Amino acid sequence: MLGRNSFNACPQIPEGYILLRSEIVSVQKINRLLSKCNQDTHPPQKFKLALKSSDFYLVLLHKTSENIVGFVRVTSDRGLNANLWDLVAEPGDQQEQYMSIIVFKAIEIIRRELPGCSISVAAPLISIKALKANGFLLDPNGIKTMGLKL
After folding, report:
1. According to the model, what pLDDT value does residue 120 have?
2. Which residues contact 66 (CB under 8 A, 6 or more apart)?
3. DSSP 3-state of 121
4. Which residue of 34, 39, 60, 66 is 20 to 30 Å from 84, comparing CA positions?
């Protein structure tokens, strides 16, 4: 859950990369990134429906190779809650930077378009540093989350 007064400086998108918002991308490529990050992959048809039903999703893409290096999907009840799903970044030396970009931009959009929503995320351990840097609190007041597999 996101804490109060959690404003962080915008991380720089590296040269040669682009951040896409809710643009059509290959679910196979997203699943490949999820798999590389040891996260659950999703059946392609269900995943396409989940993307379509999401408020938005962000894809960090290498322009030349068109490899996806970062991804997050956001859903909301558009009143009280916004949730980040499938938060991943390409393993390697730049993973922390990619994760920071994705998290920061998702929060920026939620604050602008879904003001007043609390933000929660079920995320892999690698994302903890980027999430804390952007004001997230780990299980505040003992609150635990539940999720439904696609």
Report:
1. 82
2. none
3. strand
4. 66
∠ CA 28-52-91, rounded to 5°: 40
Residues 50 and 73: beta-carbon distance below 8 Å: yes
Average pLDDT over residues 63-88: 94
pLDDT at 129 over 50: yes
Distance CA 7, CA 112 (A): 13
Task: For 47-73, write each residue's pLDDT tens digit.
Answer: 999 999 999 999 999 999 999 999 999
Q: How far is CA 41 from CA 47, 50, 72, 74, 87, in A?
A: 9, 13, 13, 17, 12
Query: Strand 17-21 and strand 118-121: pairing?
Result: unpaired
Which numeric CATH code is attached to 17-136?
Answer: 3.40.630.30
The answer to whether residues 90 and 36 touch, using CB atoms and an 8 Å cutoff, is yes
- pLDDT for res 143: 59
Domain ranges of the chain: 17-136
3-state secondary structure of 125: helix
Phi, psi (rounded to 5 degrees) for 83: -130, 135
Neighbours of 68 (CB within 10 A): 24
